[in-house]
Amino acid sequence: MQSLTLALILLLSSAGATAKDRWITIDSDAVGTANKHLNAKSFSVDESRNGITLLKVNESNLEEISHMMHEEHHRCGGYVLHESLAEARTELYGDSAKIFGSKSLFADYAIDQGDVIRPLVDSVEESKIRGTILKLSSFKNRYYKSKYGVQSQTWLRDHWKELTSHRSDAKVEFFKHTRWAQPSVVLTLKGESEEVVVVGGHADSIAGWFGRENATAPGADDNASGIATITEIIRVLMKSNFVPKKTIKFMGYAAEEVGLLGSKEIAKDFKRRGVDVIGAMQLDMTNYNGSDLDIVMMTDYTNAAQNAFIGKLIDEYVAGVSWGYDKCGYACSDHASWNGEGYPASMPFESRKGNMNRKIHTSGDTLKVSSDNADHATKFAKMGVAFVVELDR
Ligand code: BES
Ligand code: ZN
């Protein structure tokens, strides 16, 4: 009897050893490589900081990881192996884990709100997104220094007010900037918790080099599509009377096209006031279906753990939609403003970088380029609804 138990223990522990989890840290820009070469289930991205990402991997994959780091990134080994999760986290954060408090650093990425999310996802309407894109792209431009850029933001503020008029916990305001005319628009749904979830996109547009104040810049994809997607997330949540526990903020940033100016001021202001943003999603260009992948998570200036979480949300809630990773290569949108202040940010994008919409920043950036429909953007609205509800815990 005793020897049978011993044999069983030996058997179980050797089976355990073949599936051993190990913790490694790698440069964040190599996460896309890991994603490309390994079965998505054989590793998970857990946390990143300062360009270093912590991964949980199966021990049996370590050799392969080493090989691909050598081949694609010309790094020998290419990762640091840690004895325990605790040790890996110490390498990643050092003492700075205290800056934001433990809660916000390790946002709770559980996925278990299906009963709430599924009906919301089903009520996303393409025609609503299409309508908002057409409205926003009907302004001559939404340039940060033009009167049209102020008019379009006034329309957006009033539209978000209408969508939330039945809610006493909702407030829609301008965030005014001192150095240019165009304000940002911020909708706040105030929950009991001080923790904040941000979903934003830039509301301005640009075209040409001279006389931009009077240029024709419809910016239908860049970025009426993102603002229209956010507007649909708001509409769906408000129609169902979703009441958040956390504070949810939707933002239409001014002056992105001239150097992320609006979002930089906002993110700096939040950091200065110690606002605890536990997650920020940037929606910039959501309606041009240019790649084999539907949704592409940008790996640079973003948080790898949150990116992986959003990927899982897509798998769970946005049926039949594919996703993967790519990078912008530079601080290409407002996610970089949040990331720069130390907040976890993500940028789910409409295509791979190499298949991008070539009409942006011209008078030809119209809905026609997307076959006059908003089908692609509906996938992002569904993902956004899931993001808000699953982080609201
Ligand atoms: N929507 C673009 C960013 C973008 C373009 C991402 C193409 C991926 C593919 C954004 O509005 C933009 O134009 N950003 C500027 C940089 C910014 C710092 C002025 C850009 O890409 O040149
Ligand atoms: Zn742009």
Number of E-type strands: 13
* Ends apart, CA distance between termini: 49 Å
CATH fold naming of the largest domain? Aminopeptidase
N-to-C series of helices and strands: HEHEEHEHHHHHEEEHEHEEHEHEEH
What is the CATH C level class of the largest domain, in words? Alpha Beta
The number of distinct structural domains comes to 2
**What's the overall geometry?**
globular
Uncertain segments are: 8-17, 98-104
Compute the number of helices.
13
- Order of strands across the widest beta sheet? 5-6-8-7-9-12
CATH architecture of the largest domain: 3-Layer(aba) Sandwich
Roughly what fraction of the amino acids lie in strands?
Answer: 15-25%
Radius of gyration: 22 Å
CATH superfamily of the largest domain: Zn peptidases
- Fraction of residues in helices? 25-40%
Offer a concise description of the structure.
The protein has 393 residues and is an alpha/beta fold.
Description:
The structure is a single chain. Helix content is 40%, strand content 17%. The chain is an alpha/beta fold and 393 residues long. The protein has 2 domains: 19-94, Alpha-Beta Plaits (2-Layer Sandwich), CATH 3.30.70; 101-391, Aminopeptidase (3-Layer(aba) Sandwich). Residues 8-17 and 98-104 have low confidence and may be disordered. Bound molecules: ligand BES and zinc ion. Zinc ion is lined by residues 222, 257, 360-361.
